[in-house]
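Weekly sync, protein design subgroup
Attendees: M.S., D.O., the rotation student, P.L. (late)

Item 1: inverse folding check
M.S. brought a backbone from last month's batch and wanted to see whether the design step gives back something sensible before we order anything. D.O. pointed out we never logged the input encoding, so this time it goes straight into the notes. Structure tokens as presented (117 positions):
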């Protein structure tokens, strides 16, 4: 909860077309599938301070003043994003057979240790 209330993450609606079973079965007893737009809440960890779209001019001015004093980068988010990029790359290589399970686990553990510093 604090991630959103402290503007550490940016949330948005993300729509995906999914193939979902309909309420009826085909003549062969199989569900009939339809493409349907499904909305999800999504989020990301911005590397830089990103004001929400609903901020009024006063709150934008306050945030701008804070950024001038503290800087615009969010170091914790940068570390999270670096971890996620490395983790996803390692997972994809493991999933495609390039890395065996042991190599994958060693890499993920090393990435976690870097994240937790």
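Designed sequence read out in the meeting:
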């Amino acid at each position: 909860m604090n991630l959103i209330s402290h503007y550490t993450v940016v949330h948005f609606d993300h729509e995906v077309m999914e193939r979902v079973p309909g309420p009826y079965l085909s003549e062969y007893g199989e569900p009939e599938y339809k493409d349907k737009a499904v909305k999800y809440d999504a989020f990301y960890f911005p590397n830089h301070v990103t004001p929400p779209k609903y901020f009024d001019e006063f709150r934008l001015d306050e945030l701008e003043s804070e950024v001038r004093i503290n800087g615009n980068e969010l170091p914790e988010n940068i570390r999270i994003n670096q971890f996620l990029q490395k983790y996803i790359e390692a997972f994809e290589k493991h999933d495609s057979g390039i890395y065996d399970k042991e190599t994958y686990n060693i890499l993920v553990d090393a990435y976690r240790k870097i994240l937790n510093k």
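Discussion: The beta strands are 10-25, 31-44. The first strand starts at residue 10 and ends at 25.
Action: P.L. to compare against the previous round before Friday.
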